Amino acid sequence: MLQSSIAWIDFSEEDRRKMMEVVALFKQRDTRDELGLGSIRDAFADLFFPGTSTLQTRARYYLFVPWLYRKYEERRVPSHKVAARLRSDEVKLMKTLQAAGESDGVIGSVSGASLQRFPASIYWNGLRSWGILRYSGSQGQYHRWLDHFYKRHRDRQLTDDGEPVEGWGGANWGPGLPTMPDGFPDQAGFQIADEEAAYLRRRVMLSCHDSLLATLLDRCEPVEDVEFIWQHPQLALFPSTQQGWITHARNFSEAMRGVVVLYNLMLAELSERRDRIEEYEASLDAWREGLTARSAQLTAWNRHKFWQLVMDHGHIAVPTQRFVSDWLELSLADGGPQNLASSAAARALIRNREVWLKRGRSRLENERHLEMWSGAAGIAQLGYRWSIARRITNDILGGLTTSQRGR
Q1: pTM for the structure as a whole
Q2: How far apart are CA 275 and CA 268, in angstroms?
Q3: Which candidate, 127, 233, 214, 131, places its Cα nearest to that of 396?
Q4: Which of 387, 81, 382 lies closest to 253, judged by CA?
Q5: What digits encode the pLDDT tens for the residues 90-149?
Q6: Are residues 163 and 38 in the same domain?
Q7: Number of domains in the chain
């Protein structure tokens, strides 16, 4: 109906880009955190894949951003001009990548110059996490700092060997950054050169050597079409400690999958959408069957150690801990997964949680917000940023020679 009602409108190119962005956002709607599980999800994601975020796409952006900034530093671009110069160059880079035929992972390919977050902002914390960026402040603080940095660089004192006197402050960017290619950013692509891949791998190994990210780059081959980290074909190569982390993350992901399915079933019932009711009833049956197949592992799951791990790597509010513990008790009672579609206790738990989180915006209590339900809210199973990490590590591994892999 929507398509037929707007097909006659002659949209501008900018309008079409913005509409495509909206469509893209709706396609990702099922990843939203409807019931407040994000703190636990992010604790695992940051432990597994430090320096990554959900908005990142390709590994070479870890080089694109410092190349641009190093160029500004070399040319002494004043602080008040850096932000505008960066935006211009990032738009230019976007167009360069598209012109080069890159169709997967170009940040801003839909929104163009109207993009709200550009690559430097998206990768800033990751650059620091990997030790590529040494400056400790925010991106805006760095821009304002540059004038002072230039002055300190001019006034620095050198030793007899020509080295800066200790305490001067050093560089904003770590050593060893590969040389910026000729023509950048007017010429660029996502293919990583051998030297660049070796550098990024080295940065990960030095900055977060005990992470899954480091293990993927140190011991594994690129993988495609692997939906979750626990399905990795080389999982046996991971250290035993990391395999334990992954087991905790898998158990939590699979057990909590049922809570979002039941939540959507409750919304479908309130909306009287028979097609969605049948869909989510079938999804609950499939979820219970999946847990039944792993009932031995779930029965043996040490939840005390699970909470220890999560609390060591994130701040989990007490109400969230209580909600998760209550759901796990309901869904894994009596040594196996339960049929919760008709459970009054399970439904009350979800209702109380959503109302507490959203107050007047609760879909279960507010008819107007229920009408805004698209049919799938927060329905995706927790993957802990694996799809992002898989693409980034595949990019880096793809740039390494065969002899360099597994070293």
Answers
A1: 0.87
A2: 9
A3: 214
A4: 382
A5: 999 999 999 999 989 999 988 777 788 999 999 999 999 999 999 999 999 999 999 999
A6: no
A7: 2
